[in-house]
Amino acid sequence: MELPLDHFRLIGVSPSATSEEILRAFQLRLDKTPDDGFTYEVLTQRSELLRLTADLLTDPESRREYENLLLNGKSGLEFSSNREVAGLILLWESGSPKEAFKITRKALQPPQTPALGSSREADLTLLASLTARDSAIHEQKLRSYSNAADFLHEGIQLLQRMGKLGDIRKELEEDLAALLPYRILDLLSRDLSDQESHKKGLSMLENLIIKRGGLEGNNKSEYKDYLNQQEFEAFFQQIRPFLNVQEQIDLFLELQKRGSLEAGFLAFLSLTAIGFSRRKPEKLFEARRILKKLNLSGLDSMPLVGCLDLLLADINQASARFSSSSDENLRDWLNNYPGNKLEAICIFCKNWLENDVLVGYRDIDSKEVDLDSWFEDREIQEFIEKLEKKSNKIAIRSNLQNQQTEKESTTKTTEDLDNILGSIDERRLPWPGGIKQGYEKVETKEIEFNEEYFKKKPIEFYNFLIEKIAELKFSFGEFLKDKEIINQSPYLIYIYAFLILFAFGIGIGFLRNNFKKSIQDESIAEKPLIAKDKNQKLSEEDIIQEIKKSPTNQLKSTPEKFTKIIPSELKELNTASPSLEDISNLINGWLLGKSNYLAGRGEINLSKIVNNGLIARTIEERQNDINKGIFKEINSQIRKIDLESQSSSRIVVLVELDYLERIVKNSGEFVNETSLTPLKVKYILGFSNKSWKLVDFVSGL
Known about the structure:
By secondary structure, the protein is of the alpha+beta class. It has helices at 7-11, 19-31, 40-58, 60-71, 84-93, 97-107, 119-141, 145-162, 166-188, 195-212, 229-239, 245-257, 261-277, 281-293, 302-311, 315-323, 328-335, 341-357, 371-376, 378-405, 414-421, 458-483, 490-526, 540-549, 560-569, 580-598, 612-628; strands spanning 2-3, 77-78, 630-646, 650-665, 670-688, 691-699.
């Protein structure tokens, strides 16, 4: 057998070494015999080969002849069959473990396999394991981790086939396991043109995490303290920038299915990243769905969900999320922010996107976030517009169902629609300065009632009823489509038709009574106002006039007569088509009642004109103020009110207010003051239980 070895390398000296240096190296090699378990026979042959080499190189004539052979191109040394293993050991010791492993592995392959149980087989097997490990170490130093793993893997397979050296094989397996993170890094960091290596690295990464028991590392490793949690987290942070955002989404969703909560949170961040960077708002809904289902200990998800609501132009909901945060420092920062609260939420969202969301992806360029460009994007505007229309369709179906059952309210709260639409909120209000008025107005197919009908002469009332009958036919047809009654028994259709006609008959009577009442009200309204004496109670209109008379800078107290009258004297707004004056009176009642309550004057009793959700939010706001030892003095009056849209179950008005708010400690110490003139607010009213109620509002439009 010829080995890629010369006498100088065999004994471990340079070609220019003197005889004294050669003899010294020879003695050192004899004294440093490998103690890895080789047989006495092969170690004796090794010593003999070293002696022959020393004799040749210390004899001037023999050395001169050998050097001439090297100059003429001779390379390698020939070894007899009984000295091949000793020669391979010397080749390994000379610093060529890879060459020694390849030749040793070939010598163990059939038909060259030595006799089973012979000392030659034992020595070759041991040498193969040692050279495999040293080859892996050599490649690892060169950062060729994949090649290093290949050597270890081949060495393990060879030992398994030979059925020997179980302890050494286990050590090789531990080395291979410890090398896995480096192999993954090697494969994933290669040029993107090498797709096979990238896919292989991605598969190995997923298998590694699954074997560890998720990102949390819940499974104990069979390899002692191999890759503890701290080491793994450092490795994973180094790996992520080599993966694109979609690869990370797929990985984290798969790990979440296997029970990893941390993977679920990273999936939420990745979906948010792809949704924002690629202008895919539907991904934000998916991200929000995942976050809501997570139960991570110590995670305050409210501000994160609030950021998603903000990106989806749901400003009011975003504000409510931030107000519900369990982080007291965050709430204090928002409440004490010198500017508008919306501005503070935008700053928080911008920093969150830049520092936590849009980092760690190969295909996302982390740069300064521009929220204006997001809201000005046409695709984003069209998507939110579709949400508006879809929400209205849901509301129409709900109204038709409520006409049949008379058990549910026609106005759906945000939480109801969240269940229907899969976490899609009803209110998709425009972003100020970003989303334009092009989709602020929402189309609706609901039956509309106009107060002008009630002001027409009796001769025209018949025409009004004819139109309502046509609309009722349409509603009944839509009801049949929604309920899929056509596929059922025809008798059910007759029953439903009878119920509709019966309900319509009752409705005609109701309309007629209201018609008479409206005429009476109109005649009364034309009469001059009569001065009231001191004992007479003030009407809502009088209250409004008093509010307008009071200066905006006088906030220390609200007149006691207002405080007493508002909770008890507010009446339900039953008119099918209320006027702007009616709506203005209702809003003023809300503003005054809320102001009294937040100032600590009595309880809030506005259930006749305000939705329970708004009342609950106001109570929560007051409770937060109590916990902080403060109260709010608010003075607001309506400057202007415009009707934006009106249907039978929903009214939207735009209002301009003179608004002044002071925050005062219970001790009387002044804290902060906010003055907005004008403050633009959008108010939404819904028709529920035969009366109009304030459902929601959005400030800062």
